[in-house]
Amino acid sequence: MANFLIFFSVLFIFFSIPVTSLLNELFFPGFKGLGKNLTLKGFAEIENNGILRLTNDTSRLQEVIEDWELDVGPQRYTYQELKKATKNFSDKELLGHGGFGKVYKGTLPNSKIEVAVKRISHESKQGVREFVSEIASIGRLRHRNLVQLVGWCRRKSDLLLVYDFMSNGSLDNFLFDEPKTILSWEQRFKIIKGVASGLLYLHEGYEQVVIHRDIKASNVLIDNELNGRLGDFGLARLYEHGSNPGTTRVVGTLGYLAPELPRTGKATAGSDVYAFGALLLEVACGRRPIEHKALPEELVLVDWVWENYRERKFLDVVDSKLNGEYDEAEMVMVLQLGLLCSNNAQLARPSMRQVVRCLEGELEVPEIVGAPGALDGGNNGKHVVDGFDDFMNSFASSSFEKMNSHSFQENSAPYASLSTSPFSLLHGRGETR
Q1: Which domains, from first to last, does the chain contain?
Q2: Transmembrane ranges (predicted)?
Q3: Which residues, at least 6 apart from 295, have a Cβ–Cβ distance to it below 8 Å?
Q4: How far apart are alpha carbons 79 and 184 in whole angstroms?
Q5: Mind telling me the catalytic residues?
Q6: Which of the two ends of the chain, N or C, has the fewest CB atoms closer than 10 A to its terminal CB?
Q7: Distance separating alpha carbons of residues 170 and 85, to the nearest angstrom
Q8: Are 174 and 163 in contact (CB under 8 A)?
Q9: Feature table: binding site for ATP
Q10: What percent of the chain has pLDDT over 90?
């Protein structure tokens, strides 16, 4: 069928039949020491008189490695490995998709380890940039509450990331749209504390400050032990500790975007804290930050929670799917922290270190003296906003009225005035509703 002639670095193949239709099928075992069978498609050229020309210039076969790739920590997989792992990126293996690509379940051919493979969308104009960002930011991160990046692949315009597979999926599947499994409050509180710990590590525990920029329930993955792990670092930005973050394009998800971002263009730890505040309220209330199907007064979650706080019906916002089974003190603390983190004034928000200390019971949550949107530095700059540290300092020296926890229940005994911290009204942390 074919005769072979090798001339310098070029292999000429003379066929006695037309070969155009055979390019998808013909292969050579270990051509020129490559150690693998190669199909001819993409690497052969048909010349006159039915001659097939195959060169040993493997630059067309190899993935071009750029300088930044040499410093990347996780394992680099071949495209064929990941294609096989995901069954040719089958729709049946699709776990989810977002603005920057699709995520597939895969099983690595050799180790049989289950992974999640994120394939960056071709249509994404920022695809390569987001890919480089994610590789650079999480390739060396190590924390039990972060989704571990185990490998990656880049083949021309195909950009792929390989993560630990989280069999329980993302947190939003347990909170919204009539979930099949209802998380108990104990499980939710554990997830909240875990994500807070992971975010503190990003802000303070790594060699650089890592700003996630896309904290939300769908980016919190749940492992087999129901721990919350923060994932999807495709929008992350890094800068040195103590330096001033540079301006960047505004990205994120509506309902989680800090109000200063459109004005300053600077993503900071404070803007991450704002998004984490939305996450806290999501977990406690079982609904999204913006619920289009809700009544007009309940459209924006943080405003709805604040109004119920102001009207002395704070616990009316608690997720009804919990059936009243939760620790009151923990619930009130989470709702308060959600409001404090959601303050329009960046300085009035707590740091993640302060949030973690509150969640661990090392700090009392300070009182809320105004609506989250009231302290935004508006009114032509006439409002002066104290920082959260000032709140904490004044809180320590304040005296609060002590009452039994039953006075906190809806529409029953007298409720605290707005100058009194609802958290201080609760006697201990062990009582449940």
Answers
A1: 2-60 (no CATH), 67-164 (3.30.200.20), 172-425 (1.10.510.10)
A2: none
A3: none
A4: 41
A5: 214
A6: N
A7: 21
A8: no
A9: 118
A10: 41
